[in-house]
Amino acid sequence: MGTDIRFGTDGWRGRIAEDYTFDNLRRCAQGFADYLKSAYPPEGVKKGVVIGGDRRFHSEHFASAAAEVLAANGIPVHYCGGGVPTPVISFSVKLRDAVGAINITASHNPPGDNGFKVRDENGGAIAPEGLKKIEASIPPDMAGVRGMKFDDAVTAGVIMDFDAGDEYAARLKSLVDLENIRAAGLNVLVDPMWGNGAGWFTRLIGGGRTRITEIHSGRNPIFPEMTRPEPIPPNVDPGLKKGREIGADVVLITDGDADRCGVGDENGIFIDQLRVYALLALYFLEVRGERGAIVKTLSTTSMLDALGKKFGVPVHETGVGFKFVAPKMMETDAIIGGEESGGYAFRGHVPERDGILANLYLLDFMVRTGLKPSQLLKKLFDTVGEHHYDRIDTVIDASQKEPILARLKSNPPKKVAGLDVARTNLTDGFKFILSDGSWLLVRFSGTEPLVRIYSEAGSTAAVKKILEDGRKIVLG
What we know:
It is a single chain. With 476 residues, the chain is of the alpha/beta class. It has helices at 22-39, 42-45, 59-72, 86-95, 128-137, 150-155, 165-175, 178-182, 200-205, 237-246, 273-287, 303-311, 322-332, 355-369, 373-384, 398-410, 460-475, and strands spanning 12-15, 49-53, 77-81, 100-104, 113-119, 159-161, 187-191, 211-214, 250-254, 261-264, 270-271, 294-297, 315-318, 336-338, 344-346, 388-395, 415-416, 419-425, 430-434, 439-444, 450-457. It has three domains: 12-163, Alpha-D-Glucose-1,6-Bisphosphate, subunit A, domain 3 (Alpha-D-Glucose-1,6-Bisphosphate, Chain A, domain 3), CATH 3.40.120.10; 168-384, Alpha-D-Glucose-1,6-Bisphosphate, subunit A, domain 3 (Alpha-D-Glucose-1,6-Bisphosphate, Chain A, domain 3), CATH 3.40.120.10; 388-475, 2-Layer Sandwich (TATA-Binding Protein), CATH 3.30.310.50. Strands 1-5-4-2-3-6 form a six-stranded mixed β-sheet, sandwiched between helices. A hairpin with a 5-residue loop joins strand 10 (261-264) and strand 11.
């Protein structure tokens, strides 16, 4: 029997050469192939699957191994290779009218990991019930896996090389006035965190008065100067420092597969992802005058609720992960959907996070208003009030999870940091909304052995106090 493979909030991730092996990856690919053949009619499956990967160790080879399995199952493969941003792969699904995608990436995980993401015919995350079916379809060992040589599949026309870069760039140009940004004369520091976002901002808005300085743009799977390519402190600190050194107007950061973003202001101060999400929503509602639903996970900001009330648009809250956000966005034709981790998706594009497009929208916000990032934040706080946020990630042993869950279910706190718990949301984890509108969220990561403790409140002191109390409540 092979390794027991379970999909978390966004696919399967594992430690390279430990559980993330070529054999286990091929088993996953066979499970996906069998799922597609059971979920779609033959003519749908014949549209094929887009396969690509990031710049992690061996990603292009893992991608080609997955392609071999799909090809052996008679499913055409639109093969992108390695170093392809996740949003480009999702966009490629619609561009090629494919039935889905396999994306070899561990996103923001540590250097030793890699992953296996799957996407549906819309280029978005597959809903939880679909992921369960894929898991159930994974054969227990290699005896159930079909395979053929990559070159033979190319010769047979079942694997086809494909590069959607130009078409993706054209799509972004249709969504954002790139020429206006190029001519604005901004000084922009870009940190792609050694990942797939490298070179894209120069390609899209370079060559004019706006200056682009890029760091961490080569391929280096050990991710120097950061513990992992996740766009939060302390991983972003070298980029913020460089931004201060060159006097950048803004620091734009994308994570390892470029589906998430981070932002630093003109003073090299990090703007957390909850504030970025609220800024993007304000940009669409006030500057672009768009109307429609907002979709957010329960771990993100209540500033969105305030904006929804002010502009008369509905706000829908989901569980954590784009497997919940993407279906809700399509159901409601939302103008924007996002989550606390810095991933945001937009109407008129694909129901998938796009860190490149999110950063371009923020640049457009700056250009259209003539305001720098700190001034945009002031504009936001003038509209919805000041909000602060932080989170604590704590590594736990697997044996601790069930006792913690049982204790929180049987004996939930009545007070947190001296404030009454006004109501509790159990959609995904334990969210305690306090009497003053601040909140504490406790949930377990679906991809790592972590318990995450989040809080948003009206001051940094209040957030710190809530998180400290939250840690005591969780760990005892």
